[in-house]
Design a protein that fits this description.
alpha+beta; 5 strands; Enolase-like, domain 1; globular; five-stranded antiparallel beta sheet; about 120 residues
Length: about 120
């Protein structure tokens, strides 16, 4: 059985989560992008949230939590990447579908840059 199992529940938006046992309570969070199902909620800032947890040393993804109209669509794939030990660096060339309410892809790119900056600072 995989260590990281994706789960989703539908409330106003879908709430999807997958945590590896190694996941720590750190991560990077952004508002989920507006998309079908949440576009008219932008003024109230109710488009959802996207959280990506990574290992600070290796950049390996350890968990995610996302609230958006269609978060379950990517939950299984993200859990697979987490179980496979994929680093955010490996996702640098990933091309997303647009428009999408998926905020995790944006977080992967941001965390990749943050990880690269940290490695560059340590080399100095």
């Amino acid at each position: 059985m995989p260590a990281c199992v994706p789960q989703t529940i539908k409330l106003r938006h879908e709430h999807s989560i997958a945590l590896h046992p190694d996941a720590e309570e750190n991560g990077t969070m952004i508002p989920s992008p507006a998309a079908p199902g949440s576009f008219w909620l932008v003024p109230e800032r109710h488009t959802g949230q996207s959280l990506l947890m990574t290992d600070d040393t290796t950049g390996r993804m350890t968990g995610f939590y996302e609230v958006s109209p269609q978060s379950s669509a990517a939950a299984g794939y993200l859990a697979y990447l987490i179980n496979s030990g994929v680093s955010v660096d490996a996702m640098d060339s990933f091309i997303e579908v647009h428009p999408s309410s998926e905020g995790i892809i944006w977080l992967m790119r941001y965390c990749t840059e943050k990880h690269e900056d940290r490695q560059f600072s340590e080399e100095k």
